[in-house]
């Protein structure tokens, strides 16, 4: 199916259906991206991403999205009689562009024909997102994905970026002892942080880490973490808080990273959200909504990756962030307050 953006009722319908079935509802979703993004004034591709994120975050690994490019403008669907369709095991629903009218087929011959056509179409589409979901009993999936990703270009986090704050020596002190296979998990995460902080892996242009001032003070005052790492780390004591914030200052002085603090009155971030740009074609969005498992959504599509890359790059020149010098001074103020 290729759904327009005003499709929240379909999302809610699928949620209810999954509850009624008492099991996950498998969803295969065919999407059409606009190839002519430079001529689009309404950010069609980004709006499409926004429309599918609820599915990706709620339905865990049972949601699979595929895309192809089209040179037709996004308004082309409005000229098609029934451009949208939903196929289930026993029914097919075809809908007109405005969702005002549609046809529901019960005939199994029609269902078989649409299913066959759908599967044939899918062979010409490309997976839009790859996903790894780690429930709290198997978080090493998260670390494995991070360990195999190329170095960061930009990271947007709700707190001082944990990647830059820790070193392998302190990690084992912070990990919950209740995690299954804890020893292997600590090794993996230590390897990941060791790679990130290894001077030999520095790029000519150090990565830029953004986080809001509110997140800095929350961490300094409470020692509690937000975001995905909060799920498996202990509360951090004052001495280690100081050590970790000093590590950020040192990494900035050594040119390993650049830290810019966001004025939270200008831009707010959900506490469970992290966005990582690895290059102009690769974006990783991580979410730990308390109501859902740890979700890692990996976009590798040029128009999406480049849009977020440009957005993160533009933050450096905007009034949303404090200057580099002021950002480091705010971290020193946080250290003095501990």
Topology readout:
Blueprint: H1 8-21, E1 27-34, H2 44-58, E2 63-70, E3 84-87, E4 92-95, E5 102-105, H3 108-122, E6 126-127, E7 129-134, H4 140-147, E8 154-157, H5 162-165, H6 168-174, H7 182-197, E9 208-212, H8 213-222, H9 238-253, E10 258-262, E11 273-279, E12 282-287, E13 294-299, H10 302-315, H11 324-337
Parallel strand pairs: 1-2, 8-9, 9-10
Antiparallel strand pairs: 2-6, 3-4, 4-5, 7-13, 8-11, 11-12, 12-13
Describe the structure.
By secondary structure, the protein is of the alpha+beta class. 39% of the residues lie in helices and 20% in strands. The strands form three sheets. It has a seven-stranded mixed sheet, sandwiched between helices. Helix 8 (213-222) packs parallel to helix 11. The N and C termini lie far apart (53 Å). The model is unreliable at 1-5 (pLDDT under 50).
Beta fraction of the residues? Answer: 15-25%
N-to-C CA distance: 53 Å
Helicity, as a percent range: 25-40%
Mean pLDDT across every amino acid position: 78
Strand order of the largest sheet: 7-13-12-11-8-9-10
| Uncertain residue segments | 1-5
Overall 3D shape: elongated
